[in-house]
Amino acid sequence: MARSVISDEKRTGILREIIQGLEKLHGVKGWAVVSQEGLVIDQKMPTKVNPHLLAGNTAALAHSAQVVVSQAGAGPMDTLVLKGQGSVLVIVGGEQQLIFLVMTKNSSEIEPLTDYLVDAAKRFHSA
User: Fold this and answer.
1) Half-sphere exposure (Cβ direction) of 66: Cα atoms closer than 13 Å
2) Which of 43, 58, 64, 74 lies most in the core, judged by the most C-beta atoms within 10 Å?
3) What pTM does this model have?
């Protein structure tokens, strides 16, 4: 029992580090950490965004993307990128316990953001 408490404390610390790192990345307009069930774990989105609606749809989209990637024989989903006219959304962690969604200003920030998120998800889920 003490092992899971230590693991939970460690994961909480790692999640805090991940969030602090997100806030330092260039071009990040907002972020959300979402459970597979679509619940908001933590978020910092622009005020016009409904975080609960966003979380539910992010979880559903991540699940659907995972099914498509799996059916295509491409292995587990690594990253899903959605480009809108005003922002780019990056989703990482579709089959994991937590899903990371980050909104960035434009596509020039996608590669470093994706690298950061994939590494962060691996760190969190291996803790």
Assistant:
1) 15
2) 58
3) 0.86
